[in-house]
Design a protein that fits this description.
mainly alpha; two-stranded antiparallel sheet; 19 helices; elongated; disordered C terminus
Length: about 425
């Protein structure tokens, strides 16, 4: 009787469900400690974000349990523990971003997206499987090598699929940030995308090169803003400084600098536009909409607009459309987008409409405007339009019209 209790405890603690639960908790802790959360600090190669690491580690747990337990059963506890410590140390060193490790992994063109993360997660899961209690003799049949292949495929393919979806989402966010001139967020997104997809490109420019260019522009703006305005200060100087502050999302500073210009009757339309952009970058959609509407109202009070003022009216209308869209007022947003298209029937406006119709699940209209954007400016919007239409075909595969129209060849080529 006295000997049965330890055996029962050991048997219970060795069962797969207990091991998988413990491994899941350990992997969640590892993911939390050695990755970044979105919007917090600098993410670490190779896992980048907590959710990316968690998916990779959890997908690797079955394979790690099988292979690690198989090795432990054949090497003994002490060698298995030493090997587990060695593997975990290698994973921890990798997360410290030594320059030679990311370079080596990034220069393997045959690897699909997410494969390096899946491979490293598999090594980490194997280390957990090597630890005592990772495999019981009662379930040793499941550790046979014949189960390894499906488990390894799960460990590699699930992170790759998740990474693919993550990358597409953040590419959309990057395009939106660039369209808003949200330099800070665009620089962060480009840098994160460079870690998730080192070989990825945006309009023919690599994620890494785009991130470096945006970072340099942000730093240049910060250096300019650090210089005090000369005295006497002209309207042009105030507008330029307000524009710089708006680009960096420094709303309070922009409001202070532009206060004399928005206090006029009518307010200076350019000052209202800069404040609308600043609130938009902060994510305060209602305040941004109010300032864009004030800018448009101020322009209309000036009477017939000269040609030089048309870009300000277009910017105000585009800002109204975007903020209405973010507020969920799709009918008002569509009307503003169409007004902007009347003001400037350009490839950019057609592509913005394509993105709007994609978001609002109006597939045929999204395809139509994407196709027009690619035809008007194939160099800038050809690839982006093809990606958007491919997304439409993927998410709305029941729409026969997309497939039949897409079969006619490359867009704008």
């Amino acid at each position: 009787m006295s000997r049965s209790t330890p055996r029962n405890i050991d048997s219970a603690s060795s069962q797969p469900q207990f091991w998988l639960l413990g491994g899941g908790l350990v992997s969640a802790l590892v993911a939390w400690l050695f990755t970044g959360r979105e919007g917090e600090g600098s993410p670490r190669f190779p896992f980048v974000w907590f959710d990316v690491a968690l998916v990779a580690l959890w997908a690797a747990l079955p394979a790690g349990w099988l292979i690690g337990g198989w090795l432990r059963a054949r090497t003994g506890r002490l060698p298995a523990a030493l090997l587990a410590a060695l593997l975990l140390a290698g994973i921890l060193v990798t997360t410290l971003n030594p320059p030679w490790i990311p370079a080596a992994l990034r220069e393997l063109p045959f690897l699909p997206v997410g494969a390096p993360r899946g491979g490293l997660a598999l090594i980490a899961a194997m280390a957990i499987g090597l630890l005592p209690g990772g495999l019981s003799s009662s379930c040793s049949g499941w550790s046979a090598p014949r189960w390894w292949l499906p488990a390894i495929l799960i460990a590699l393919l699930v992170p790759a699929a998740y990474d693919h979806a993550r990358i597409r989402y953040f590419e959309t966010q990057l395009a939106e940030s660039l369209a808003q001139n949200n330099l800070n967020r665009a620089a962060v997104l480009a840098a994160d995308l460079a870690m998730l997809q080192p070989r990825g490109e945006v309009a023919g420019e690599s994620h890494a090169a785009l991130a470096a260019r945006l970072r340099e522009r942000v730093q240049a703006l910060e250096r300019e803003i650090a210089q005090p305005l000369p005295s006497p200060t002209t309207v042009g100087m105030l507008l330029a400084r307000g524009h710089q502050l708006a680009l960096l999302g420094r709303v309070d500073d922009a409001q202070r600098v532009l206060a004399p210009l928005v206090a006029l009757d009518p307010p200076h339309p350019a000052a209202c536009l800069h404040l609308g952009a600043a609130y938009e970058l902060r994510g305060d959609w209602q305040a941004g909409l109010d300032w864009y509407e004030r800018a448009r109202s101020a322009l209309r009070r000036l009477g017939p607009l000269p040609q030089s003022a048309q870009p300000m009216l277009l910017q105000a209308t585009k800002g109204i459309a975007f903020t209405q869209r973010k507020l969920g007022r799709l009918r008002e947003a569509e009307a503003a987008y169409l007004q902007a298209l009347d003001l400037a029937p350009t490839a950019e406006m057609h592509f913005l409409l394509a993105q709007f119709y994609d978001d609002s699940q109006q597939t045929a209209l999204a395809h139509q405007h994407a196709e027009t954007a690619a035809r008007l400016d194939p160099r800038q919007f050809g690839d982006a339009a093809e990606q958007l239409i491919a997304k439409l075909a993927e998410h709305h595969f029941g729409c026969w019209g997309i497939f039949t129209r897409q079969s006619g060849g490359n867009l704008g080529r």
